[in-house]
Amino acid sequence: MESYLQKRHQLIREDRGRRVDAIHGKKLSDAEQRADRIVRDIRAAEAISVWGPESQAASGAENALLHVFPGMEFLTARETILGTQLFKILSKMPKGALLHAHLDATVNARVLLRLALGQPALHVRTHEHLTANSINDTLPQFQALPEAQFSALTSLTDDAYIPDSWVPLQKARENFHESLGGPEGFDNWVVGALMINPSQAYGTHNTTYKIWKKFASTFIVSNPLIRFAPVWTQYVREFFMSSIEDGISYSEARIMFWSECMFGADGQENIPHREWFVMYNRVLNEVKDEMKRQGREDEFVGSKIIYTTMRNITCEELEWCLEDCLSLKQEFPHLLAGFDLVGHEDSLRPLIDYIVPLKKFVERQKELGIDIPFIFHAGETLGDGTAADMNLYDAILLDTKRIGHGFSLVKHPRLMEICREKKIAVEVCPISNEILRLTSSMPTHPLPVLMNQGVTVALCSDDPAVFGNMGLSFDFFQVLVASEVTGLTTLGEMARDSLRYSCLDTQERELALSLFEKRWATFIDWVVREESKGNAAN
Amino acid sequence: MESYLQKRHQLIREDRGRRVDAIHGKKLSDAEQRADRIVRDIRAAEAISVWGPESQAASGAENALLHVFPGMEFLTARETILGTQLFKILSKMPKGALLHAHLDATVNARVLLRLALGQPALHVRTHEHLTANSINDTLPQFQALPEAQFSALTSLTDDAYIPDSWVPLQKARENFHESLGGPEGFDNWVVGALMINPSQAYGTHNTTYKIWKKFASTFIVSNPLIRFAPVWTQYVREFFMSSIEDGISYSEARIMFWSECMFGADGQENIPHREWFVMYNRVLNEVKDEMKRQGREDEFVGSKIIYTTMRNITCEELEWCLEDCLSLKQEFPHLLAGFDLVGHEDSLRPLIDYIVPLKKFVERQKELGIDIPFIFHAGETLGDGTAADMNLYDAILLDTKRIGHGFSLVKHPRLMEICREKKIAVEVCPISNEILRLTSSMPTHPLPVLMNQGVTVALCSDDPAVFGNMGLSFDFFQVLVASEVTGLTTLGEMARDSLRYSCLDTQERELALSLFEKRWATFIDWVVREESKGNAAN
């Protein structure tokens, strides 16, 4: 038996030898080993007390909660997660970098609404009369108007309202009809249009295609609010601040440059892309200054922009975008981190359609002596051998620096090998994948396959404003509870990798990593100290 | 672009180089290429006409069918599948071997009930009064009684019925109360207790733990019907005949030897294991003779038994079973194919608990000069690093010949490598995995990962009487529609592998494979001919 156990131990070690915790596994400190053990014990206890069939959550009134288990559907589990000790610990953990998030979906929907309500230029309208029957199927349309066109209407919901006429946002809210819930009903209506709810994800829209329709509609609703410069700058600031609060020290935000201008304070669509960069940079410096004033400069290393456009445009349109991207890179070399194409891979155009302009883009960079890595979305699909799945081949042949999602990458042994050889990291978005119905819950997510194959993974939130997974704590939580192999030290290594595989330059990266180590040590000490107080994480 | 496409083609070829269709990919005949193309075209057409959002199925009245897609939940899709051209083709395809099926769940539940109704010794009772309210939660209990104990009761449902008293099965059916549907209501009640229905799998029992409770209960209900020798022999015959009708030429049935005896015609529990083998062998020879009489001997190569017991017994009990298995192997060397432990891996004992007796079993075989390969269930779980997942390490360290399920094998790079090196095939049961909630539907099943890693796969039905996936056509169908890479020729190679990795001896295997090739060629010609008639598969 002794020799059997030895052989078994050796086999397990070989099998897990490519995992991030084995590769980087420097000798763990005593404190790290203790913290890891503490977290495993809490996870095991909560697997029964919180997620077991006899738990409080299971006996709750809501039907959807009848099936509780660790890593269950996020939208149903969210409130329960918030009450766990494990989540309290993870929310204090330094997360490293957020490498995959679409800027337009990074700020809490209620905060966005609050920001919008501060702007007299913003108006709202509906295409139909709002009634108790129609409200769930009727989306609010927003727009910033020039002062000359400000509307004198005061209600969106009185009988006299003529569909498609603009009402000032604040008035529409103030006078939202009592029968629809008054101002609070207004907020819920708007937030409902900006987010995916459980009955959509797990009921009415329970396929990747259907949930993508709802998902896309949230961007259509939020776009005119966010792409209004006075809101946008505050929105970016909120994104930075809330990320910092969750322990994210650096981010690379994907920004959609599909429209050529955003709306300015004057209600005209006249703010070109370069101004977006100027504004982003200004907010970045303001936040850095503020963190410094608070003595917290170690918590924020910075943020860069990944230029993105939609994967439904023509090659000619793409060429324009790529030239635009080149000139922005020349003007803002430290701010522009990479290029990507976004949108629903299963229904839009595959990368193979764009090879010629994309190759030309690489040539142009050489001519100009600049470097804009591709950071492509690829394989965000359940397809096996479909165009969306095949995007992985093209992303890799085009030398993508990282892969966005790569959900179907686990099907491709040679591509995983190349990812290891060429150090291509995968931006895995667990909660996004689950809500967008690529996986029914975390235990069925292919993440462990990737990790055990030695493919570098950075956990990401993707569109937290739509999903409700603000920060990275929720995604780290869902990953941690769905595996017995992964522990706190594994999450720490993944956080380090998010910095290592970022677009920070060498010097920035070294700094970011050394700051991370300081915070990590403090965090580990805190976990151990809280537990030894017999009072972990309370 | 030319050179890009060349590089891309090469990369795809490398990536898919370990697939069964690449490895065995002898040059395909013209007919095979045509048949493969025909099937791909039908699949593409039906992906829209049958499984598209605008299809008939989608517009059907039943809510559950609102989400239709290729590879969707089997229990909801079953009727729709039966109407497809693709299914008609696959039902004619020669399947090779069925390597993973639990004998007690291999015969259509209605057929089992019919067989049972022919036996006056069989009785039924309930623990509660059956009413319209209680019927769905009350299971029938069956038992064969000795003639002296035959019951004179005539109804299970009249007011005078005293719970727990036996009623002759035929009488209970005949006089089943009108308000419960009469005899037809009786049949539906019994069949409902023997099968899993969609509202259980996808509603009330929608987790692996919950559905296993229902699943296990079906065996408790069917056991006394099947383990009655006069039924058992007919049951085995039905298993062989229905398998043959679906194109299965050989099977290895897992038989549960947990109880020491089954009931004989005299209503006594007095038929020992060796008699089971004698009966199995007799039926086998009868069916062979009958096939010969029909000039169809090429369609049936034979069947063997995998000795199984429950993975909840003590080591002492296991030792008894293993000795039992050894003596059966000595008496029936050609009939006993292997040894396995079965039951819910997530809740029962892991293999590591049984290492000592299992190792001793191997030693005993050497002493006796016999060979009984382990063919272990392992990794039938969503766990990552749980005891059930870790069963894979032990199965492999114990030199398992094949792996039953291996659902979590995709997480283990070293173990997949060993499977390739040591030629360990995995018995993948797609529909079983889906109904037992390891995967929400076929597109999320990890099968493509295994296939692309070059792990040999045999598709299996597991417990078709409970799931309704009789034969192998349904499992082949679900796999085929969920991938654009897999084609008809891939399925053919998988069918060949099922014979190659069976426990047939060399000579038997060669024969089975050569008979398969003959039937395969006929099948391919039929596909091509039907299509050229403009009338494929009608």
From TrEMBL, chains A, B:
Alphabetical UniProt keywords: Hydrolase, Metal-binding, Secreted, Signal
SUPFAM superfamilies assigned: Metallo-dependent hydrolases
Superkingdom of this protein's organism: Eukaryota
Stored Gene3D superfamilies: Metal-dependent hydrolases (3.20.20.140)
Similarity-based family: Belongs to the metallo-dependent hydrolases superfamily. Adenosine and AMP deaminases family. ADGF subfamily.
Cofactor(s) for this UniProt protein: Zn(2+)
Protein name: adenosine deaminase
Domain Adenosine deaminase: 210-511
EC number(s) from the headed UniProt entry: 3.5.4.4
InterPro entries according to UniProt: A_deaminase_dom (IPR001365), Ado/ade_deaminase (IPR006330), Metal_Hydrolase (IPR032466)
Family matches, as PANTHER family: ADENOSINE DEAMINASE, ADENOSINE DEAMINASE 2
Keyword Secreted: yes
Any coiled-coil regions, as ranges: none
Gene: cecr1a
Catalytic activity as recorded in UniProt: adenosine + H2O + H(+) = inosine + NH4(+)
An annotated GO cellular component: extracellular region
An annotated GO BP: adenosine catabolic process
GO MF, one example: adenosine deaminase activity
Annotated organism of origin: Grifola frondosa
Subcellular localization: Secreted
Main subcellular location: secreted
